[in-house]
Amino acid sequence: MLKHFMLAMALAFLAQHANAQDGKSAEGPRAARPSDAKLADTSKNIVPLKVTVVFYEYDGEKKLSTLPYVLFLKADEGSRYVGKVRIGVKVPIWTGGKESAIQYQDVGSNLDCSAQVAEDGKYMLDLSLERASIYPNSSEYPTGSKPDEQPHQPLFRQFRANLALLLRDGQTTPSTIATDPLNGHIVKVEVTLNVVK
User: Fold this and answer.
1) Could you read off the pLDDT of 60-89 as tens digits, one per residue?
2) pLDDT tens digits, 132-185
3) In this structure, what DSSP letter does residue 115 have?
C-alpha cells in the first residue's frame, strides 16, 4: 500500500514538472513583450538627417557674407528630438549715468530644428532661426573723443524666422528673403536636407 502511494506521488511530481517545462519551452528563451515590438518598429523607422542652413547677406548684387551651419538630427514618426546649434559672443555695453555699469548683449546665431517622416519620401522640418549682429562701425568712438567719454552705443540687428519645410533627400529650399530696413541689405536663407547613409 505504501509502495502504491509513493509511486502515485512520484508520478504526480513528474507530471507537474513536465507541464512546467512545456510551458517554458512554448514561451521560448524570453517571452516577447508588446513594448519590445514597439521599440523594434520605432528603431526601424528612425532616419538620420543632415540639415544645412546657410545665411547669405547681399548689398545689391554684391555678396557680403556666407555663414553655413550644419545640424545632425533624427526623423521618425513620433520623435520630437530637436537638433540645436548655439554660437556667439557677449558684447559689453556701457549703461552710463551716475552708476555706470556694463551689460552684455548676446550676438550670434541660434538654430533649432526637428524633423518628422512625411509621405512620398519627404520629411517635414520645423526650423527656428535667430541671428543677432552688430552694425559695422556702430560701436566706434566719435572722432576727437577722450578715452573716458561715453562711446557711441552699438546698434544690433535681429533676424528671426520660423519655417515649416517639406523636403526630399538632397533638396534645397528656395531662399527665404528679408530686407534690412536700415541699410537695405538683403538676407537670404537656404536650407538643404540630406539623409545620412
Assistant:
1) 999 999 999 999 999 876 667 889 999 999
2) 998 865 544 444 444 455 556 788 889 999 999 999 999 999 888 999 998 899
3) E
129 close to 53: Cβ distance less than 8 angstroms: yes
Place of cell 540630406: 194
> In a 10 Å sphere around its CB, with 0-12 CB exposed, 13-18 middle and 19+ buried, how is residue 195 labelled?
middle
Residue owning grid cell 551716475: 98
Cβ atoms of 83 and 73 closer than 8 Å? yes
The three cell numbers locating residue 68 = 553655413
Is pTM beyond 0.70 here?
no
The C-alpha cell of 32 is what? 516577447
Task: Report the distance separating Cα 110 and Cα 128, nearest Å.
Answer: 8
Cα 132 → chain centroid: 19
Gap between the Cα atoms of 154 and 147, Å rounded: 17
